[in-house]
Specification:
alpha/beta; D-Maltodextrin-Binding Protein, domain 2; Alpha-Beta Plaits
Length: 309
């Protein structure tokens, strides 16, 4: 009953198939980046509701229809115009050579695409020089990236398509794998060593090229991009508010990291200044003791929701 009442609040599910000409068609990724993308969209006012079995969640904005797809499928579907926009990894855009427009790098799920080999096989240069006296087996879920890697190093190699758990294939089933890594811990645990970094990747918001010719859809995409960008930027910063005396004011302000310039106002009864400044989250542990030493007092720290420059 709860799901049904929520559906009614978001729109009539019987109208899901009737997509208007100006309705924005968006693809949402399933898998590991799904949660972060949905949280980001909720932070900018877009809620999506699914009963867990449907791949077509309802959107709180009646001008948007959504479909859930694997991130690997999204670049090509957007390029073909099956959907107006979507979220996917930059690695899949490059792998599929998809002709899409990148609107925003969200920075989610940062990974490196690397080539790795079992440490027991020795040096990569030895494999290049034919140590195994047979074609090398290169396994990956990335067909084009693997082909480029083979050509780059002029390897006598055979490509084998991997379907998940690529790191489990060496040494019996593959001599070299090409896979995405975040910390590299999985490679270490499987005694694999990186021999080449092919590219870096993160989650991107993309759109179809032709859709930008539609003024209404272009405006909607620009609004969504601006709001998402402001939210992503805000997560990387916090707002510090502090008081400082007249004597310490100049010295403290000169040592403040900030986006442009701090916001400064006089305190009641002309007793010093109040200062507000947005600073990177990672600088806070060392910055606050420094500010105290420079004369700051009554320091407050706030989380930010959006930063619109």
């Amino acid at each position: 009953m709860l799901i049904e009442s929520q559906r009614k609040s978001l729109g009539n599910p019987s109208n899901r198939s009737s997509v208007g000409q100006n309705t924005l068609k968006i693809t949402l990724p399933t898998g590991r980046i799904e949660k972060k993308v949905l949280e980001l969209l909720e932070n900018i006012g877009l809620k999506f509701l699914s009963n867990g079995r449907s791949y077509r969640p309802l959107c709180s904005d009646s001008g948007i229809v959504a479909k859930m797809l694997k991130a690997q499928n999204i670049p090509d579907m957007v390029a073909l115009g099956k959907h107006d926009c979507g979220f996917t990894g930059y690695d899949w855009i490059v792998e599929q050579e998809s002709d899409v427009v990148e609107l925003l790098d969200l920075g989610f799920d940062p990974v490196r695409i690397v080539a790795a080999m079992p440490e027991q096989l020795g040096n990569f240069s030895e494999l290049q020089n034919g140590k195994l006296d047979r074609p090398l087996v290169v396994a990956s879920q990335y067909c084009r990236l693997a082909d480029k890697f083979i050509k780059k190093w002029n390897l006598n190699a055979i490509f084998v398509q991997a379907y998940g758990a690529t790191e489990a294939m060496p040494p019996e089933d593959a001599d070299i794998i090409i896979d995405n890594v975040s910390t590299g811990r999985t490679l270490y645990d499987n005694r694999l060593v990186i021999v080449d970094e092919i590219m870096k990747s993160s989650t991107r918001f993309i759109c179809n090229k032709q859709v930008l010719a539609d003024p209404l859809k272009r405006h909607k995409l620009e609004e969504l991009t601006m709001l998402m960008k402001s939210t992503v930027q805000a997560k990387a910063k916090v707002l510090l508010e502090m008081n400082v005396s007249d004597e310490d004011f100049d010295r403290l302000v000169k040592n403040l990291p900030c986006m442009r310039a701090p916001t400064v106002s006089r305190l009641y009864e002309d007793n010093g200044y109040a200062i507000k400044v947005a600073v990177p989250v990672e600088t806070v542990p060392t910055l606050i003791p420094k500010l105290v030493a420079l004369g700051a007092r009554d320091i407050l720290e706030y989380k930010l929701q959006k930063i619109i420059g």
